[in-house]
Specification:
- It is a single chain.
- The chain is α/β, with parallel strands linked by helices and 317 residues long.
- Helices cover 37% and strands 17% of the residues.
- The protein has one domain: 3-Layer(aba) Sandwich (Rossmann fold), CATH 3.40.50.720.
- The strands form 4 sheets. It has a 7-stranded parallel beta sheet with strand order 3-2-1-4-5-6-11, sandwiched between helices. Strands 7-10 form a two-stranded parallel sheet. A two-stranded parallel ribbon has the order 8-13.
- Strand 1, helix 1 and strand 2 form a beta-alpha-beta unit.
- Helix 3 packs parallel to helix 4.
- It is globular and about 55 Å long.
């Protein structure tokens, strides 16, 4: 597909996935101009064809001005709050209101391709969830888990946008846990603790995908004709107990009532940045089928789940 003269806009360009995507784009010649939008400054000098525009996506007018001034024709939307902040209102403004601003800018400037980062969390965490969900499984967020709730609302808005703008090809990714050498997430840090804590009676499947494979998936979505939602994971994953064994850490299972009470107490004492609802991540099943992304995007991850974990662990030494 020839995209000579096309301009790519990336929101959250200097975030975790954004930086990996920028690295992937350095060797790309599909786009003649790459517009990086973020509230953070560039981590270093930007390569030729790359330019920086400071922008908070909550500022819809400034965002629209950048779209118009630069002539953006394709967008990757990565500007989200990935880690809990103890301020759900702020997270909602960035995630949901910010996405609405991006969609408005795409509508008013005639963007032809939009790729959005959602999450496996949009499926929610529930006792009755079957293993290896396909993309047509219902979106039903976990109550009280702001990240899950926000991703579900974002998907509703993106779906409405896609229906109203058939000339714009829309791709939504639902990644599992993204990890790799540069990962600094709460999940990653928990793996460095002396023990792995689980909930008695539960041993969910945990899926991981490498940060560079994630960037490659976003790139493939930009240069293909694909549309729709795609689960993003490296493989079928491992059980939580198997993760503990791989890490070489003792695996301690505690009663659910105790864990939920303890985490909520620690949250109220400001000793943890998240509340009890997020414990559902290590309690209830949530795994995704990856047949669609492998077939339609010809996504071939370079790293398995365990190789992804090893790359993170090796980088800690």
């Amino acid at each position: 597909m020839n995209r000579d003269g096309k301009t790519l806009g990336i929101t959250g360009a200097f975030g975790y996935i954004g930086k990996r995507l920028l690295k992937r784009l350095e060797g790309d010649r599909e786009f003649s101009r790459i517009v990086c939008m973020d509230i953070a400054e560039p981590p270093g000098a930007l390569p030729e064809r790359f330019e920086y525009h400071r922008c908070d996506i909550r500022d819809g007018e400034k965002l629209l001005d950048i779209f118009r001034e630069t002539g953006i024709t394709a967008v990757v939307h990565l500007a989200f709050i990935a880690y809990p902040t103890r301020d759900p209102g702020f997270e909602y403004e960035v995630d949901v209101t910010g996405t609405a601003n991006v969609l408005r800018a795409c509508t008013q400037t005639g963007v032809s391709r939009l790729v959005v980062a959602s999450s496996d969390c949009a499926y929610g965490f529930f006792e009755d969830t079957p293993d290896y969900l396909k993309e047509d499984a219902p979106i039903r967020p976990t109550p009280g888990f702001p990240y899950s709730e926000n991703k579900a609302e974002i998907e509703e808005k993106v779906s409405a946008f896609a229906r109203a703008n058939p000339s714009c090809a829309v791709v939504v990714f639902r990644p599992c846990i993204v990890m790799g050498p540069t990962c600094r997430s709460t999940t990653a840090q928990s793996m460095l603790q002396p023990v792995i804590i689980g909930i008695r009676g539960y041993d969910p499947i945990m899926q991981f995908v490498h940060e560079d494979d994630t960037a490659e998936a976003f790139y493939l979505a930009l240069v293909s004709d694909a549309e729709g939602a795609f689960n993003l994971a490296a493989d079928r994953g491992i059980r939580y107990s198997e993760l503990a064994a791989f890490l070489g850490k003792p695996f301690i299972r505690l009663p659910a009532w105790f864990m939920y009470t303890l985490v909520e107490l620690f949250y109220r004492l400001r000793l943890l940045p998240f509340g009890k609802a997020q414990l559902d991540y290590i309690r209830y099943p949530l795994s995704m089928d990856t047949a669609r992304i492998m077939q339609e995007l010809v996504f071939k991850p370079r790293f398995t789940t365990t190789e992804t974990l090893r790359s993170f662990l090796d980088a800690q030494h």
